[in-house]
Design goal:
The complex is a heterotrimer of chains A (166), B (208) and C (652).
Chain A lengths: L2 H28 L20 H11 L18 H15 L4 H12 L14 H26 L16
Helix pairs in contact in A: 2-3
Chain B lengths: L2 H23 L19 E6 L13 E3 L8 E6 L4 H17 L5 E6 L4 H10 L7 E2 L5 H5 L7 E5 L5 E6 L4 H14 L16 H4 L2
Parallel strand pairs in B: 3-4, 4-5
Antiparallel strand pairs in B: 1-2, 1-5, 3-6, 6-7
Chain C lengths: L1 H28 L3 H30 L6 H6 L6 H6 L5 H22 L7 H21 L31 H11 L1 H13 L5 H32 L10 H26 L3 H24 L13 H22 L1 H4 L11 H33 L7 H24 L7 H24 L5 H32 L3 H11 L1 H25 L2 E7 L4 E5 L2 E12 L3 E12 L2 E6 L2 E5 L6 E3 L1 E5 L2 E10 L6 E9 L2 H18 L8
Antiparallel strand pairs in C: 1-10, 2-3, 3-4, 4-5, 4-6, 6-7, 8-9, 9-10
Classes of the chains: A mainly alpha (166), B alpha/beta (208), C alpha+beta (652).
Chain lengths: 166, 208, 652
Amino acid sequence: MSVARQKRLIAAALLCLTAVVNAPQRVAAQVSAPTAAPTATAAAPAPGVDPAFDDRAKAISSRLRCPVCQGESIQDSPAELATQMKSLVREQLASGKSETQVFDYFIGKYGQWILLEPRAEGINLLVYGLPILFIVGGGALLWGAVARWTRPVVTTGNDTGAPIDD
Amino acid sequence: MNWKRAIVTVAGVGIPVIALLSYGMTRDPRSIPSPLPGRAAPVFTRAVFAPGEDPTLRRAVGDSIRLADHNGQVVVVNFWASWCLACRDEHETLSMIARRYADQGVRFYGLLYNDEPRNGIKWIAQMGGQAYPALEDPSARTAIDYGLYGVPETFVVDQRGIVAHKYLGPVRPGELSQLLDSLLLAGARSTTTDAPVTRALPSPDSAR
Amino acid sequence: MIRILGLAAVWVALGMSVAGIIAAIWGLTRQRAPLVASAFQTVYVNFALLTIAVVAMVYALVTHDFSIGYVAQVGSRNTPTFYTVISLWGALEGSILFWGWVMAMYSAVVVWTNRHREGGLVPWASVALLTICLFFYILLVGPANPWHLVFPTPADGPGPNPLLQNHILMAIHPPLLYLGYVGMAVPFAFAVGALLAGEIHSDDWIKLTRRWTLSAWAFLSLAIIAGMWWSYEVLGWGGYWAWDPVENASFMPWLTATAFLHSAMVQERRGMLKLWNVNLIVSTFLLTILGTFLTRSGIVSSVHAFTTGTIGYYFLAFIALALVVSLVLVAGNSEGLRSEGHLDAAASRETVFLFNNLFLTGFTFVVVLGTLFPLVAEAFKGVKVTVGAPFFNKMTIPICVALLFLMGVGPSLPWKATSREHLRKMFILPAAVAIGIVVLALVLGMRDVYGMLAFAFAGFAIVCNTREYVIGVQARRRAHGEMIPVAFVRLVAANRRRYGGYLAHMGIITVAAAITASSSFRFEREATLKPGQSMPVKGDLSVRLKTMWGKDEPQREVVGADVEILRGGKVVGLLDPRMNFYRSQDQPVPTPAVRSRPTGDVYINLMAYTPDGQSATLRVIIEPFVPWIWFGGLVVALGAVVSAWPARRRTV
């Protein structure tokens, strides 16, 4: 890659990044709301700078439901509020909050509803447990039935023996 | 035909499924209870961009409003936007009630949600003015702090800084003044409602 | 006038279906053949009447007769005629009318093609069909009446929902969906007919039912794929499946129908699973009604939910009726349906079908539970929870992997029993391919276990299914000395069901692999650009904003961005993502632009722009292998067509 091209690419990349990140940073300076950002100075790294950080933020954002959309995650939604929530997630992570703390923040504001995947506790255990029970229990029953059905029988059963091509 | 087995199956499978679906018909999937009522109101510090007309409520443009400075006062926080149609419906009501309760220490603030202040100023002029100050909310941080779904939404914070009630959609005058009366009467004691409050979301504007 | 004509046609059809039901039941219980024959006549007349009603509605739409409620609701003089015609199914009332028409058509075809059949099965089935028709006619004269008078007559209407007039697929997806959905009523009617007529043990009702299920299943498969495509091309988030309740609604009956298509073969071969198969057919139908209820009652929130009204209560009553009748009939006859199974060996195709059914019904269970769980949680705990995509992905991906594996094992195992030696021979190559894929994936840096397994088993299954063709062709070449293409065509023609089935497998495997690839390797960038500016996306791929433009169309204003795709600095393509502002709506409707290549798509959505045209925010998504999903869907349908095609009486 030529040096000139490299420079141009970097310049373009920087332009893109500033465009995206500018807004939240400007806000971060104004906001001193303690609940939103306890250490208001912690600015989130620009997207693309720290891939590991991006992945963490993305993992959280894709599990939060966009309040103004229909069943979409804030990660996927183009809605303005979703974009703002995404940058809030990044800021909270950058300020040292754990993933659980970020989720707790949003649950405190919106209720459990905000989670696209219910927490595995209380009655929610049903939604995780019943399918597992269905597959495992059904599998065991079926296994038993197959074992029973394969036991040699004296009289041949219902074998129609019809020529069917499948 | 084995009627006994049929009846048992209907009772065991059919009835529960039908009951669940019938129950579903009584619920509105768009009404989601807010966890905020009964809890401390998220504090904010926000700049005034439209001063408000009522002499008591008026604050200078650029002033910083801190919710924390209002301890001992009932505060009504309204989220609105110039692009929101339902906000037009409640605008007059809010200004009227704000004027009526101003000398009893109740403070009203309108927080602009995902909108430009200059659009907000234009809108206020169009609507014939507003009694109380309008504040900026850049990047909707305060809106998210209050768990906003759409506009309009209105929160009433009592004298101890606890959210007493959340209104989804346009505020109705009777309801709001009744709540303010009871809050003022009861002072700082026994004013919080523990039950989460639900009401249908205003659909067209919340879909933004 | 046209209003009266349409409404009268539905009213008469309503009366006819009541008469037909009474005539059929009377004729059956009193053994009067002419009465049964006249009941059949009402089925045909119903179809004619509903055709009149549909044609009248289309005419009213095209001539903009705004005195008719439905036209005033979805019509607009600005809408292009094409979208005006397809707005027939664009809103609730019209979709019910269209539905009723498809239902009447199916009923007429079913009765006509089986009118000479002996016994009570077809007459009883016609009672079931007429009852379902009747339900839709009641909706059409009641809560979903599209004909109600609007006075004073408005000069113009708002036009169809912008999302529905934004893409050509809106002309294809709903009719396919209705053909698939409504088609599932036919197997149900046969099951009810067989139960009531006491013919549930006959071998040929299951064959008849299987063919009808297969054709409905083919439509439903195509409809689901078309729906995914529509969502991808229109909604602008770059995905194609969101586990939205409406998507789930179309998917649940598809799963149970798929299970039935396999287990029906076990019944044909071994006389087993009679009760199970009846249950699958009934569940499939009930799930179509449940899905319709979910999307039209507003009890779950969904992107596609129709406007709600009292119609939900009608659907609830109909579900209750259908559920109770089915449960009584099936449970009441379950003793007689019980069939003790016998298998020759555990390692046989029968066993694979049994496990295939376990996973398919387990899959259905996850989807039903996930869709309804918010109601359960609210009913018992009073909490609102969301069950969204992360849940469904987590729970269903392992099931999909298991199904992919079985899709390879099944065709490789013979019916009845097999030898250890044969097993070894059958699986050594596919297993080697699967292991090779895992190694390759590891070397390429893939770490997602399920992704790897999905690729590995997809490879495994593709090899297994392809080999079936190879073995068959080779055998024919040896036996008849035919050329490969000739041998191939004759092989398939002689065993349509079997090789059509394998073809459908290949389609499904293609879809599964493409979905895995596109979700594992999806890559996304978003940036705000000025005209002339470019942004790197991935590798040597970058995009450059050329210009912003705007244009006026009768029904909307369009703002677009011309974006150049560059590879290594050279322009290789131009995309124009747009935002459409319909005059009837506040919300802009995005229209992403997609550049498709076999290796994947470049997907660009215009997220925002400044009114002066000096900058635009673009979201660029690299979506690997997405076109293979659509292609796979076509292969599935082709496989179903081959499978369902009536065999010619010819010996090869």
